[in-house]
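Re: that chain you flagged

S.,

Sorry for the slow reply, it's been a week of failed gels. I finally had a moment to sit down with the sequence you sent. For the record, here it is as I used it:
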Amino acid sequence: MLNKIILIGRLVRDPELRYTGSGTPVCNFTLAVERNYTNRDGERDVDFINIVTWRKLAETCAEHLGKGRMVAVDGRLQIRKSEKENRTYINPEVVAEEVRFLDWPKSSQGRAANGNAPRKESARPTTDQFNNSPDTDNTEDFDDEDFEGPF
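Prediction finished late last night. Pasting the structure tokens below so you have them in one place:
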């Protein structure tokens, strides 16, 4: 069986970093991903996809990402179900195994006073910091009530 998703999009809002009861970092953010075709009005529809990262990757994303940043996410689809007041909610999300930053952060420190290339201190970390280690399982039991989605 194969469950693999690759997405490229922009963050809708700043990521949220939380910790499970056992202290494991988990970061949630939403990507806006344009579809490959246009609708009847000639515009591209956009899908809003929830992303979850764990452990070191979660901390790195929370520290370096913000609203509007473009990223590539490589992960797997996970469907969480929850019930409230006799209603069942389906919460699809992508559990990221790798996140690559595809642009530079927008900041006044990112450019020299004359608008030239970024200074060395604003350089982004290497992509090795964005990968979960292969021997780490990214799923951990946690209470769904602690993590409410937009659905």
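What I noticed first: The helical segments are 55-64.

Talk soon,
D.
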